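2 proteins. here.
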Amino acid sequence: MDTTVQYAKEMDQQDRMRTFKNEFYLPENQLYMDGNSLGLMSKRSEATLEKLVASWRERGIDGWTEGEDPWFTYPEKLSERVAKIVGANGNEVMVTGSITVNIHQMLSTLFHPTPEKSVIVVDELNFPSDIYAVESHLKLRGLDPAVSMRKVKSEDGYTLTLEAIEEMLTDDVAILMLPSVLYRSGQLLDLKRITEMAHAKGILVGFDLAHSIGSVPHQLHNDQVDFAIWCHYKYMNSGPGGTGGLYIHERHHHELPGLAGWFGSDKTKQFDMSHDFTKANGAGAYQIGTPNLFSTAPLSGSVELFEEAGMDAVRSKSLALTKYLRDLIQAEVGSFDFVDVTPLADESRGGHIALAHPEAARICKALKEANVVPDFRAPDIIRLAPISFYSSFEDVWEMVQRLKTIMVEETYKTFSNERNVVA
């Protein structure tokens, strides 16, 4: 375990992704370790956004049908590119909506409760918005969430076991919906194995990929996952509030959208203005309203970078960065009560390292004062995410040195141990 700065510099010299750092706007002297919450802006994203602005300026309404990238089919063409990142067929992915809206769309489309099979299984560690969506969706169906929503329990408060998940797959369960990566601990679930377990019981499976897309390669189609939803503003660097995405396996494309809207129409018939809905073929049918193009355009530029780098290279560097980070944490600040709650195995962790500490909120504030951007999650988690495109090994080394200074000099004690309004 070499934790010297010389080793970090050597690793950076060998890094085949090192030139991508020049593609991003990096605040001067700042070490940005929060790309798992909001990715930084790339010059490519800026360019594709400006290109769309120019098309509006120059063409007005004709931008819908004219120019290099007509708006009418912009999301569909972009979706075919995103599909390759998640291991799906081009017609199985749609860049649209947000995570919560897309959860409602997928459940309203695929959840067909019967007296014998009306339960949706989630987990007790999931991000609150997913739980809110499931609860409200069940209420709209006249179902009581206290009865029809069950949560997989965690043994340690940070991770889930396959055994605990399988135990919840009883005969009355219709849908299992879990995160691919648990947002606090960074645990990566085995999507293929979980899907196999659920399908053996006749249960549909969906995953929230918010903390894995752009960090972990997926094979959604081959793994037979029924549906997935995600955002693009974390590892995919599409900008704040960037348009989200959904995947629905082609075997379900016969399903009418539960939430039908104009942009789910067959493109050739959309402007017929008929009151008879003719659904699009593929995932495009599950769009609802007119796409927000200004929130979509930056993703096009970001996807270019993924196409050039390749997901295998992104994942390989991510694993190397997070391994080096945890080695440094152990060597430099291991005596300061930090508990690494992220699973050790490469196949069981996503793109960030989560440290539990009783003084987590004030340590994060001290890190920000030291020009490091971490992420705090209540009640006691510090999340650190070195990003393959714009984090170097020397950045990771320097970040841990600043953390060590904060702990040795106890500068964190000058801050309150309460989170800010936005953590």
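next one coming up
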Amino acid sequence: MHIIERIYIDGAFVEPHGTQWAPLFNPATEEQIGTVRLADAEDADRAVAAAKRTFTAFSNTSREERIEMLRRLHAAVADRASDLVEAMREEYGAPSSFIDFSAPRAGNVFLDMAKTLEAYEFRRRIGGAEVEMRPSGVAVAITPWNSNYSFICGKLSAAIAAGATMVIKPSEMSAIQTRVITECLHAAGLPDGVFNIVTGDGAVVGAALAAHRDVSKITFTGSTATGRTIVRMAAETMKRVTMELGGKGPSIILDDADLDVVIPQVLAAGFLNSSQACIAGTRILAPLARFGEIEGRLQEAVKDFKVGDPKDKSVRIGPMVSQKQWDRVQSYIRLGQEEGARLLAGGEGRPEGLSRGWFVRPTIFTGVNNGMRIAREEIFGPVLSLIPYHDEEEAVAVANDTDYGLQAQVFSSDVLRARRVAGRIMAGRVILNGAPHEPLAPFGGFKQSGFGREFGVFGLEAFLEPRAILG
């Protein structure tokens, strides 16, 4: 049983002022595996005070000093890779296909940001003015449960590169993962107060941080509904904000696509991270001329997406994070049938042979139109909607007919055609034919998927403000 009773403030693991405890579960077994003592508003204030005390000195460190810190952080995280893998598997239940990417990436984001920092020009001449990019102040990062340590490391890497200090409020549902990554970051030996980590409830600690007058910047990853609340609170003191919110990504299969290649990629995009991912391609757009063929291919290929215990390397879809999330996904599967969509695969209940654990049958609806709620609302579970279109023009219109605009996919045998279609999609990222991840490219969304960008130069500048000196 994991008993987590410390938070991290001013370079030390300390007892929180908060006295509330929350249970931790293994979602593959539904068994309680630990408890975490939650921070409160007073702890949030202590963490901000520590970051504020450190800011003046840290903001004036050199580029070389910060690059060295980023490299030390990479080494410290890489050294505990196996512990990070086990913590995510036990507490979150992610399949190996996701963990094998997520665990190395947590450390690599520090090297990616060091590379960005090496080439970045903090001073530039514009006419008669000298313009210097300065750290914006004390930053707050609020991170979700679906990729805990990747979000923590990604946001922290940009803050450190910019010379900003940070308070991190991770999800209380990821406390075991948070403990391991905090131990890693502590081992890197950064100055006290550069980063502080307070695990607590969003309505208590998150709200206290969002309203805090000494916080200048908030970076948040999570639901659009929570993002709206944070933006309203941040506006009271004109905090700078980066919002990476929900998504309802389209995967557009053009009529010239090679289905032997495309169908497995479309399903991999849709079921990414057990579909508990804002970037999952949960709307599959298929041309009417090939619709029946695509239906049949999907119905057969989905059988390769095994659901079960994430300890099994052949498993591709793990459990939902909680009973609440499982119930939510089941409600959408019922809703899809009530709306008139037809089940091509899956349905309600657990997969055959699994009597415990918050597992969902990988579900594909066909006969879906883009006005149905299952096609418009973020479900955050393995439920995909197959939507027909007549021609390329309609495919683009349907893809863009959404409140979201985070990530999209385009599949075609003609790369120039795929690129032309991609240029018309309103999304922060458009991936052509399953192209590999580019860690230095900006990431963020259009419309209600948020604003601001993370990673690379754009992520660095999210923590900087230009100061112009004339004369």
